[in-house]
Amino acid sequence: MILPTVVVAIGVYALFLQYNLLGTALGFVTAHTVLALPFVIIPVTASLRGFDRRLEDAALICGANRWGAIRQVTLPLIAPGVVSGAPFAFVTSFDEVVVSLFIQSPYLQTLPVRMFGSVTRDTDPTIAAAATLIIVFTTVLVLAAAFATARRNRFR
User: What does the H/E/C string look like for the chain?
Assistant: First the structure.
């Protein structure tokens, strides 16, 4: 989170070059997962800090197995942290153009890399269409969240 993106990209490139992961789907998934992981760990850790382990122990005492206690007690209680970390991970991964430029191949490119290439090389209306779709999607998501919050507050 602290290192400049170019430094991270050079390090990922050097590491992936040794393991032949450049331009592979596994390389893209690994790089973007590692880059987005801190943005998920922080809210999940905050949710776990407020989690009372005695609730899980109570579920075990009441007859639940370990997986049932995790599924029915732990996951619902830490769900706000997971749900808030998911958009951060997506946006971070979507925004990593520099790292994607270093590990891409001619056959495997992310949408932001294609958009960057379209802007820098040629004038294509596809970039305008993609940008419009991203703006519309973001607006709909924000409006849906605002509507859901207002509706929940109205029924309280």
Answer: CCCCHHHHHHHHHHHHHHCCCCCCHHHHHHHHHHHHHHHHHHHHHHHHHCCCHHHHHHHHHCCCCHHHHHHHHHHHHHHHHHHHHHHHHHHHHHHCHHHHHHHCECCECCHHHHHHHHHHHCCCHHHHHHHHHHHHHHHHHHHHHHHHHHHHHHCC
